[in-house]
Specification:
The chain has nine helices and ten strands. It has 241 residues and is α+β, with helices and mostly antiparallel strands. The protein has two domains: 2-70, 60s Ribosomal Protein L30, Chain: A, CATH 3.30.1330.10; 87-229, Phosphoribosyl-aminoimidazole Synthetase, Chain A, domain 2 (Alpha-Beta Complex), CATH 3.90.650.10.
Length: 241
Amino acid sequence: MAVNLSDIAAMGATPHSILLALSLPQIDHDWLKAFSQGLYDCCDQFGVSLIGGDTTQSPHLTLSVTALGWVDIGQAIPRSGAKPGDLICVSGTVGDAAFALNHLGHPLQKRLDYPTPRCQLGAALKRLANSMIDVSDGLAQDLGHILKASQVGAKLQLENLPISPALHALSDEQKWQYALAGGDDYELCFTISPQNYQKLLQKQLDVSISIIGTIQQQHGLTFEKDGVDHSLQFNGYQHFA
C-alpha cells in the first residue's frame, strides 16, 4: 500500500482512499488478522480510508491495491515539465533498499520492508516543482524518465548523492551502484527552479532534501565528482528481465 501512496505523492496529490482486491486459496484467520492490522495501521498513518474492493477465492494468494488522491485541476506535477536551469533534488537517502536486499538482517532492511511514501513533501511541491517522479526502479533510470518526457538532459554531482552511513564504507563504485541503480527507495526526485527551491525551504518538511544536479539543454545524463567528469552506465531495475 505504501508504494501506491508513493505514486500519489509523486503527482503532488493528497491521498484519500484505497481499494483492495484480495484473492485467497483459503482463509487463515491469523494471517488475515495480521494483514488487516498492518493495512489499517498504514491507512491511519497517512489519513486514508479503505472504501471498497473485492474478496474472492482463488488457487493462489493475490493482492491488488489501488490508491486514490486529490489534486487541484491543472496542479498535478508531471514528468514532462523539467526546464534547463532547474535544480535536481531528491528526498531522504537513496540506495538503502538495494543494499538491504543484499544484506538481509541489516538495520536498513526496514527501508526495504517498510517504505515511507513522501506524501507531505509531494503535496508541498504543488505550484513549486516543475517535474517529479518517485524512485522505484533506481534514481538514474527514474530521472531518465523525466529527461525523456521533458526532452532535456542533466548533470549529476556524485558527491551530493544522499546516502546512509552504512554505504559510506563502500567503494565509490559500489555506493554509486546502490544509490543510482538500486530500486525500491520510494523517495521523490523532482526538478525545481532555484527561486522556488528557496520557497520550498520556508516550508516545514518531514524529510531532508538534497540538490544532486542540474537540468541542461543538451540531452543525456552525465556525472561528475568534485568537478571531474565520470563515465558511468546504470540500467536500474528491470521488472521483466
